[in-house]
Amino acid sequence: MINKHIRTDLAIEARELYSEDRNIEIPGVKVEQEKGNDYTVTRVDIFNEEGKQIMGKEKGVYITIESKLISFDDDDSREIIIDAIHKELSKLLGDFKNKKALVIGLGNWNITSDALGPKVVANTLVTRHLFEAYNKEYDDDVNEVAALSPGVMGITGIETSETVKALVEMIKPDVVIAVDALASRKLERVNNTVQISTAGISPGAGIGNVRKALDQEYLNVPVIAIGVPTVVDAATLTSDVIDYTIDNLIQESKKGKDFYKMLKSLKEEEKYSLIKDILEPYGQNVVVTPKDIDEIIDNLSYVISTAINKSLHPGIN
């Protein structure tokens, strides 16, 4: 069973936690990986209840795109990642013509590291009002798309799930695409990873504030979740720093290597629990994000919104 106290929204990391020091695959979970020159795609398919219980995640397909180019803000890097997201998203959408989509930007627009969803919505090409105004039923170039940033309960006083469900019942989309900021257990994956999932999403899960999930069971419509880890919690960051320090000490020290290697051999769960106990007096909800998060979120929102626009509207190139 995965340690639920280690904070991560990524299925690929949940699998790593289970597989640590084990040479077995997880029952009820299928994993495929494709490595390219610019990025790596990992597909984790949780297909039964046993896999769900072990992983601590809902059944569905979790597609992870990992690349250093994701956080780069040059045109060439953006185009590579946009195409990668567009390719995977289009596979999940299938033949998306003459259909309706609702894009939901989850998160708090007042907190930069949590503003990914609202910023993606701001860049989404919405067309529902045009279909309504001109009484259109079909268009060769665009589909009927609506978008909303429902805010967070602390701002609106309304559960996000209630807002989205009411909207779904009103406009009856064929698919809901929910975008949110996530949390990772590895600093190296922050802002360098995109996860696309058919399992839905729980708003606020990344910072430990789990609300009711937006998924097909609740909304009665397929839900595709897209997220980027923008934060790690303090215990995770400290664990990474300790690992880097121990690696350096092992290389530089002629004596005491056995002691350092013993520290290095500690499992992730053991290190995390130890550090979490030490940090307890400082509060459990401390999360860390890079100092240039403003520019990163602007770049990520452009990349993800462009990939969504290309996937929903066949006339966009």
UniProtKB/TrEMBL annotation:
Coiled coil residues, start to end: none
Complex formation: Homotetramer.
Top-level enzyme category: hydrolase
Lineage of origin: Bacteria, Bacillati, Bacillota, Clostridia, Peptostreptococcales
E.C. no: 3.4.24.78
Listed GO biological process terms: proteolysis; spore germination
Entry similarity comment: Belongs to the peptidase A25 family.
Biological source species: Alkalithermobacter paradoxus
Protein name: Germination protease
Record field: catalytic activity: Endopeptidase action with P4 Glu or Asp, P1 preferably Glu > Asp, P1' hydrophobic and P2' Ala
Keyword line: Hydrolase, Protease, Zymogen
Molecular function, one GO term: metalloendopeptidase activity
Keyword set includes Iron: no
Entries under HAMAP family matching the protein: Germination_prot (MF_00626)
